[in-house]
Amino acid sequence: MFSPDYLINIPVSLILVYLLYRIFNSCLSIRSQIWTRLSFSAVLFLMTSPIVLPGELTGSLGILVLLSAAVFLFFTDRPIVKTAVILIVYPLWVSFSYLSYNIGYVIWMYCFRQNMTETGEMLLMLCCALLKIPFLVLVERLAGKWLASGEISFSSRIWAVISLTCLASLLGIITLIYQVGSTGTFVIWPACIACILTSVGICYICDLISRSVRRAMEGDMLRTQQAYYEDLKREQEEVRGLRHDMMNHLSVIQSLLGQNETAQAQSYLKSLTREFSAPLRVFCENDTVNALLNAKYRQAEEKGIECSFMMELPQDAGMDMVRLCSLMANTLDNAIEGSERVVEKQRRLITLKGRCDGGYFSYSIENRAVAGEVLREKGRFVTAKKDSRFHGHGLRIISDIAEELGGTVDISFSGDIFSVTALIPAGKA
Question: Angle at Cα 347 formed by Cα 346 and Cα 352, nearest 5°?
Fold first, then answer.
């Protein structure tokens, strides 16, 4: 009889454990202790042992619970990310495990009419088990390419949608496996293939979304840098033009001093000083962030907003600069927009501070705002403007970006001061 007892092949199981370990390790960050790696490998070994049989789910669901507990215990990622990875990988494994075993069962049942030697049955089972190796190799390659932990950074909402989609696929295939009869086990093969394709498609969509988001952020950063360099070029041309008139200016000053018009000479000299002083400021050592701050500083100045920027950020900050600049740009845009609506221009003020210390980057920005335009609904700040459907997304984007960087953000409004504070690990790339 075709029995699961024939699937006692330690070398094959160890290879499967190695491949499964690489899949999870490419998507998540495992703890550094050696005992956690060994314990997780032991759980994966158990995961390779049970066979997914028609009408029986005890082994499959039991391994799912054990695997979930191990992933939550041994990996350091956010819970929603760990949940999503489990729900992506496990349906792949369950579906292909059922297929690989059931293919052998169908061959034994319909091709050999249940008449095989014990050795033949052993070899057939071994061949079915070996099918899992190239399958997991392919999954490991795709996971490393599309779900690499250092490349994919989504908000909790996106991970939740991914988890629900994969959960629906898992529940569907488990229900079909439980309900299928022993004589028609092959009728759910298309459903197993569909479940596998769903998980693979989700991985590919994750990669597409990640690339799209990164391209958009990089585009914003490049536009900021381009504006910075255009400002630099324009100001250099202005200085070059002023140098041509230097002799004339010096002649005027010399004439005023010769006539003992000291006050007028000083006034004339001050006006020249203002013209020759390029407004390009050095806020920090990081060129990219400095370009962004200069562009936003000039934009705020044009709107009559006083700015106070204090930034301590090295050139190599050890962070994802694309997302960090997107976070700063969004908070500055919100601050400029909020300050612009303050009627009294002398009250328009934006204060920005940032520094790296103790392995973290702390960032805070404050601006004066009109009290009636900021409300708190369900624990979140929203705008009270009539066209509110076009506004208020910036704060949600800020929270998502901080979360993607592995940090936290706090948004508060007290009196007429609106503030955003973020704390981000300085080694999160």
Answer: 115
